[in-house]
Amino acid sequence: MTDTVKATAEKTAEKAAEFFTDVREKATEAAEKGKKFAAEAVEFNKANVEAFVEAGKIVAKGAQEIGKTNMEFAKKNFEEVQVAVKELTSVKSPTDFVKLQGELARKGFDTAVAQGSKNTEAMVKLASEMFQPISNRIAAMTELFKKAA
C-alpha cells in the first residue's frame, strides 16, 4: 500500500507542479498583455490630447483671421462713412438729402448683410476645421473598439 500511496503522492505532486507552472505562465502572459495595453492606452490618450491641442490651435488661428477680416471691414466701413458724411453735407436740397440718405442706408444694409454672411461662412468653416482632429480621434477609438470586440 505504501507504494500505491507513494505513487499517488508523486503523481499528485507532478500534477500540482504542472498546474502551478501553467498558472505562472498564464499570469506572466496576462501581465505582459496588461503592460502592452497600458502602453497603448497611454499612447492613445496622448494622441487624444494632441488632437485637442491641434483643435485649439485651429480655433486660435481662425479667430485671428476672422478678427483681421472684421478689422479690415471696420476700417473700410469707417472710410465709407466719412465719404457719406461729406456727400450729405454737400447736398443742396432736402429732397436730394433724403434721396442720398436712402441710398446710403440701402448700401449700408447690403454691406452689413454681406459681411454677416461672410462671418457666418467663416465660423461654419472654422467649426468644421476645428472638429476634424477630434473626429479623427473618434474614428480611431471606434476602430480600436472594433478590434477589441
In short, what is this structure?
The protein is an all-alpha fold. The protein has 2 helices and no strands.
Order of helices and strands: HH
Give the total of domains: 1
Instruction: Give the N-terminus to C-terminus distance in angstroms.
Output: 54 Å
The biggest sheet amounts to: none
Binned, the helix content reads over 70%
Q: How big a fraction of the residues is strand?
A: under 5%
What is the overall number of helices?
2
Average pLDDT taken over every residue: 88
The counted number of beta strands is 0
- Unreliable stretches (pLDDT < 50, length at least 5) are none
**Dominant shape:** rod-shaped
> Helix/strand/pairing class, anyone?
mainly alpha
Q: What Rg, in angstroms, do the CA atoms define?
A: 37 Å
Provide an overview of this structure.
By secondary structure, the protein is mostly helical. It has one domain (2-148). It has two helices and no strands. The chain has helices spanning 2-89, 94-148. Helix 1 packs antiparallel against helix 2. The mean pLDDT is 88.
Topology of this structure?
Blueprint: H1 2-89, H2 94-148
List keywords for this structure.
about 150 residues; mainly alpha; about 95% helix; rod-shaped
